[in-house]
Specification:
The structure is a single chain. The chain is of the alpha+beta class. It has a single domain, classed as 2-Layer Sandwich (GMP Synthetase, Chain A, domain 3), CATH 3.30.300. Helix content is 46%, strand content 16%. It is rod-shaped.
């Protein structure tokens, strides 16, 4: 028997993703999220079973609690670096015009 849950995008704009059957979910976090905690991403991996159990208890409309996968999203760090480089170029151009 296949899982017949209707699939809809879930918070697509925030980076979370689910598989078609909703049995797998990926939740990205940025470097600051991982670095600000002593355990880093290892803490999330360690708590994966607890989080999955809590989701299963609270999401009663799902047949199965999704298998969670935590991923490092480097997009924020990349955009900060690009902004920093653009500021440096802008400052260099304004100093060259003096």
């Amino acid at each position: 028997m296949t899982d017949s849950i209707e699939t809809r995008p879930y918070n697509e704009g925030h980076g979370q993703s689910q598989s078609r059957t909703r049995r797998r979910a990926a939740a990205p976090g940025n470097q600051r999220d991982y670095d600000s905690r002593p355990q880093g991403s290892g803490g999330l991996e360690h708590a994966k079973g607890f989080i999955r159990r809590e989701l299963g208890a609270r999401l009663s409309n799902l047949r199965f609690a999704p298998d969670l996968h935590f991923q490092l999203d480097e997009g924020v760090a990349y955009s900060v670096r690009v902004s920093q480089l653009l500021r440096e170029v802008e400052q260099g151009e304004s100093n060259a015009g003096r």
